[in-house]
Amino acid sequence: MTLLFQPSPPDHVPPERMVDFDMFHIPEGVSDPAEIWHDLVRRGVPDIFYTPHNGGHWVFLRYEDIVEAYRDHSVFSTYQTPVPPIEPFPVVQPQGVDPPAHNVFRRLLAPMFTPTAVRGMMGELERRAAVLIDGFAERGACDFITDFAERYPTGTFLYLFGLPEERLDAFLALANTFFRSTDPAARAQNIGEIYAVLDQLFREKKRNPGNDIATQIVMARDENGAQHPWEDILNCGFLLFVAGLDTVTNTMAYIWRYLATTPAAQKHFRDRLDDPDGFLRGIEELMRINAVSNLFRRVTHDCEYRGVQFRRNDRVVLPNTVANRDPRVFKAPQVIDLDREVNVHLTFGVGPHRCIGSVLAKREVMVSLQQWLRRIPEFKLADEQPAGSVFGGSVMGFTALRLQWEVAAKRAAA
Predict the structure, then answer these.
(1) Contact criterion met (CB below 8 Å) for 171 and 190
(2) Residue 141 and residue 401: Cα distance in Å, rounded?
(3) C-alpha of 318 from chain center
(4) Please, which residues have CB within 8 angstroms of residue 340's CB and are 6 or more apart in sequence?
(5) Burial track 256-281 (b if 16+ CB lie within 10 A, e otherwise)
(6) d(C-alpha 385, C-alpha 376), whole Å
(7) Average pLDDT over the chain, rounded to whole?
(8) Beta pairing, strands 294-299 & 315-319
């Protein structure tokens, strides 16, 4: 098989731009995977550097360069971008297609995730969060990841796609293998299993349409009145499956981890439970400081950018966590200001591929925190946290996060 999108050897990289950095490797003793990125800034490595790890790729560290890579698809493509390079790789719709072709499925999906559409989901989002939290509130402790943060967005996916609740554990198993496994054979089998599930789902929705996103995708028609290509339908379903689960899970994990160590921040949000604008402003700041995604681009042709030579098929990694703390853009960027008024963070990207589900993601986090604070008193990190529970890569986060609080009976006895 001819590999069309493999990068060339890095003989075009000058020695001063070569840095020994592996975004998947979290050194022993590091409790926050984002710190491996911020350590690069503290060390003063070049704003644009190359690492030979994971197939070799560039990294941009300046906000303005990351924005440029998001916006200029003529140089920095989203098509066939995996790090390490993998071929063949699913051409997810619309994220993995450059403009203007990406508009076909983007226009199809956009109405499903507008603020108005998401407002219509609020009752169900609130109900789902409340049910999960009520399941462990009286225990006085939980593993936030397994008890809530991974179940909530996956359950929401099932709801939006018109799938029964009893399939939650099966979908969680698929998602965990996709996001956590490093075994190539297991990953290949997992992707095949996800596509098989999506194929069965869309065929069922075609036979028996419902009032859900899966039905809208499979029943949509192109400009000639024909059904979209089946492969594109599956690739769109695949994007929605993988894009809305791990990022939301680990964004919530970061936020709850911060709140568990900062009682004043808990009080800030409790005081604003009836002030949605103030509450959401605080959420935006926590999303800025806790950006979990490091997105990929592929260079389309040999070129020069800011005096650096790039070759066709070079990969570029865009760490949002670094962009969101660039002092050239944000005042006191390391300070968490829950009342920050101007917040041009890149957590959801920018440009033609800005996250289409950003409104839903924000509301999932907001609803979860509101329902949590109405049911759980002041909480903190448990004394014992599992070793090795942090991970890096395209999405950073935690496999476990143990929290604890006093239950009502104990508070009354005290």
Answers:
(1) no
(2) 11
(3) 13
(4) 281, 284, 285, 288
(5) bbebbeeeebbebbeebeeeeebbeb
(6) 20
(7) 92
(8) antiparallel
| Residue 274 contacts residue 246 (beta carbons within 8 Å) | no
User: Rounded to an integer, what distance in angstroms lies between the CA atom of residue 36 and that of residue 26?
Assistant: 7
Q: Cβ atoms within 10 A of the Cβ of 193, count?
A: 15
pLDDT of 381 > 70? The answer is yes
Pairing of strands 57-60, 315-319: parallel
Could you tell me the pLDDT band of residue 409, with boundaries at 50, 70 and 90? low
Query: What CA–CA distance (Å, rounded) separates 355 from 359?
Result: 9
Q: Give the per-residue SS3 of 335-346.
A: CCCCCCCCCCCC
HEC string for 174-228: HHHHHHHCCCHHHHHHHHHHHHHHHHHHHHHHHHCCCCCHHHHHHHCECCCCCEC
Q: Which amino acid is located at 171 in the chain?
A: F
Are the CB atoms for 312 and 300 separated by under 8 Å? yes
Rounded-to-integer distance, Cα 162 and Cα 398, Å: 29
Q: Tell me the per-residue pLDDT of 36-49, one tens digit each, with 9 for 90 and over.
A: 999 999 999 999 99
Domains defined along the chain, listed by start? 15-150+245-413 (1.10.630.10)
Give the integer Cα–Cα distance in Å for 29 and 387.
Answer: 9
| Cα separation, 245 vs 152, whole angstroms | 9
Q: What is the pTM of this model?
A: 0.93
